[in-house]
Design brief:
By secondary structure, this protein is α+β, with helices and mostly antiparallel strands. The protein has 20 helices and 34 strands. The structure holds guanosine-5'-triphosphate and magnesium ion.
Length: 658
């Protein structure tokens, strides 16, 4: 069955009584006005669903919406799931108020495909028909229905049906299948219970796929249950996809608790938020001024909640304007970036009559803290989000860019509303484009974040050199503490600066290229004396106190100089008491290599004898070689570590060096 289905959703729209439900009946054979009140009043109150077979025999879904102004809320709930609209205008009435309002709502919802059914042509003459078509062309100019096919039809006589059907099939053909990106998510349209089967939840998924057996969470309640059976377009199915009419039998859910406006999601990682950033568009038709913090009715998915518009740019808006706002919701909703919404409000003024559609927009960021107006940083972030939000790869890039700490598949999954494999694919594309950089410790950073960190490092280094002319450079730990950036980010930025030769490594320190620490002459002399004494003492170096006594200097001064020498890489600190000259440590490494040339491991005693010193010095040196991973200790024996192994291979390739 699923090969015969297309996950494209059709929907009707148009003024009350213009023949939407009659056209659906003609097209599908289905009566969508099923409520007793609908039958009695002869008008649609709530959404109706029907499967529709197209010219290529494939089946798509169709949602029939009410046209009456009192039920706009239901119309918007239906419109959120539509890909292709059948825009219905009766030839006798012509363009009416909800013809305008529905067109605006569909435009705000981001709809891109549709055609016009000019109904009731049996009631008008040719001249009237032509004049309505002319008016329609003017109305649709500049909208997504500009240039759309206009199909004259009578639902009573059937005149024009064949041509309408062909046009509809072609319009659906031109609209690609809905993407099934991301984890499953569905705005609940309705819920009821069937004797023997239990709760059934219906709706049109916005994302993903679902299969019998899947566990789904009901938000905002947080309860969950498993799908036992499912129907797509009224028939049993093994899979349901985004853009199809689903009826899911989930016996574990209490049908009394399930309401329109809730969501069913595959993952429990999404949390309802009571604030969301968005780009808001005010309709051209709005007269007067929209003040900051206006209370509006927000329609998103099948939900409709009260909200305030906290404007982030200017304190007022007029018709036709756009700006970034923060929606402050009276009821938290589990929103997803990219989602479209419509706002309706009761604007004061002459002729004001209840709620009217005044605008709409697109959800960008989600958070639960209030944002302040005119903050450049916030506005720049929102502009970047708006640019990225409709493309999953660009959005993934944006989320990585927003993060100072390395992003992982797990951390991106929630904010990108994507499956792990989709994240991995997006990251791979971004890596190839050199937009994200993998870190040795795992995760990815955006190139911009690394570049910004590099700029901060260069500035910090400049400041450090100016304040510490006697120091050979700054250590990684000092840089980390000073900048407060993520260690992985610091290392990646340092690496890029080293490669670009914008900084140098001197021992364990980072310095500007060509940086020469300027020591006062006295200190310089003392350093040289200390270095000379330690070099001479080789494997049996004097202690700090012994040096202080020998050089007739106070121990703290000696300690300072030894720290400077260590930073320059001239001395190594083996433990609390023992400092050894670089040459002695190197000689110790060579000694270890000689021992490894004879046997796969050596004992402490063998090392001590080879060095020709007491245990007091041999043990700390051996420990230092372990610490620097030159050797690997196991009990009393040491085997070659990674670096020693490398050297042993090189040496065996060039015999005679040791
Ligand atoms: N003569 C004529 N009557 C029509 C035509 N289409 C619909 N009607 C009649 O118009 C009335 C309203 O039709 P519906 O299909 O219920 O209109 P609707 O657009 O679904 O109305 P709402 O859902 O309430 O907005 C019904 O009495 C239909 O029989 C048509 O093409 N010609
Ligand atoms: Mg109807």
């Amino acid at each position: 069955m699923s090969q015969l289905r297309r996950n494209v959703m059709l929907g009707t729209a148009g003024h009350v009584d213009h023949g939407k439900s009659a056209l659906v009946k003609l097209l599908t054979g289905c009566e969508t006005d099923t409520l007793a009140e609908e039958k009695q009043r002869g008008l649609t109150i709530d959404l109706g669903f029907a499967p529709c077979r197209l010219a290529d025999q494939r089946i798509v879904g169709i949602v029939d919406v009410p046209g009456h102004v009192d039920f706009i809320r239901n119309m918007v709930a239906g419109a959120h799931g539509i890909d292709v609209v059948i825009f219905v205008v009766a030839a006798d009435d012509g363009i009416m108020p909800q013809t305008h309002e529905h067109l605006r709502i569909l435009s705000l919802m981001g709809l891109r495909h549709g055609l016009v059914a000019l109904t009731k042509i049996d009631l008008v003459d040719e001249a009237r028909r032509d004049s309505v078509i002319e008016n329609l062309r003017k109305l649709l100019a500049g909208t997504f229905l500009d240039g759309a096919r206009v199909c004259p039809i009578s639902n009573v006589t059937g005149e024009g049906f064949d041509s309408f059907f062909d046009s509809l099939s072609q319009t659906v053909e031109a609209c690609g299948d809905r993407s099934c990106h991301g984890p499953f998510r569905l705005w609940v349209e309705d819920s009821f219970t069937i004797r023997g089967a239990g709760t059934v939840v219906t709706g049109i998924p916005t994302h993903g796929r679902v299969r019998p057996g899947d566990q789904l969470h009901l938000l905002p309640i947080g309860s969950f249950g498993h799908v036992r059976r499912m129907q797509v377009y009224g028939e049993d199915a093994a899979e349901g996809r985004a853009g199809e009419c689903l009826a899911l039998n989930i016996p574990e859910l209490d049908h009394q608790a399930v309401r329109r406006g809730m969501t069913l999601v595959e993952s429990d990682s999404i949390e309802p938020v009571s604030m969301a950033q968005a780009e808001l568009w005010i309709l051209d038709s709005v007269k007067g001024t929209i003040e900051d913090y206006l209370q509006v009715q927000l329609h998103v998915g099948t939900a409709s909640v009260s909200a305030h518009l906290a404007m982030l740019e200017n304190t007022a808006m007029t018709g036709g304007q756009r700006q970034f706002v923060q929606l402050r919701l009276a009821t938290a909703l589990p929103l997803v970036p990219g989602e479209r919404f419509v706002i309706r409000a009761n604007l004061p003024g002459p002729g004001a009559a209840g709620l009217t559609t005044i605008g709409g927009g697109q959800i960008l960021g989600l958070n639960d803290s209030r944002l302040r107006r005119k903050k450049q940083w916030t506005l720049a972030l929102l502009a970047a989000q708006r640019y990225a939000v409709d493309d999953p790869v660009r959005w993934c890039e944006q989320i990585v860019r927003e993060s100072d700490s390395p992003a992982t598949v797990a951390s991106l999954q929630k904010r990108c509303w994507s499956r792990p494999a989709e994240i991995s694919d997006a990251i791979e594309r971004l890596r190839v484009e050199n937009r994200v950089v993998p870190l040795s410790g795992g995760g990815w950073l955006h190139r911009d974040v690394i570049q910004n960190a590099a700029k901060e490092i260069l500035a910090a280094l400049q400041t450090f050199h100016a304040a510490n002319p006697q120091r050979a450079g700054i250590s990684r730990e000092e840089m980390l503490a000073g900048l407060g950036i993520n260690p992985g980010c610091l290392d990646a930025a340092t690496e890029s600066l080293l490669q670009a030769k914008q900084i140098e490594r001197s021992g364990t320190l980072l310095a500007r290229p060509g940086w020469n620490a300027r020591l006062p002459d006295r200190d310089q002399r003392l350093c040289e004396q200390i270095a000379a004494k330690l070099k001479q003492a080789a494997f049996s170096p004097p202690t700090l106190e012994e040096l202080a006594a020998a050089l007739a200097e106070p121990p703290p001064r000696i300690a300072n100089m030894m720290r400077l020498l260590a930073e320059r890489g001239l001395l190594m600190r083996l433990d609390d008491r023992i400092w050894m000259h670089r040459d002695a440590v190197e000689a110790g490494r060579q000694t270890a290599l000689k021992l490894f040339a004879r046997a796969p491991a050596f004992s402490t005693m063998e090392f001590r004898d080879a060095l020709g010193v007491s245990r007091k010095f041999a043990v700390p040196l051996a420990d230092y070689l372990d610490k620097t991973r030159f050797t690997v200790r196991s009990g009393n024996n040491r085997a070659p570590g990674a670096e020693a192994k490398k050297l042993l291979v090189q040496n065996s390739a060039a015999p005679g060096l040791i």
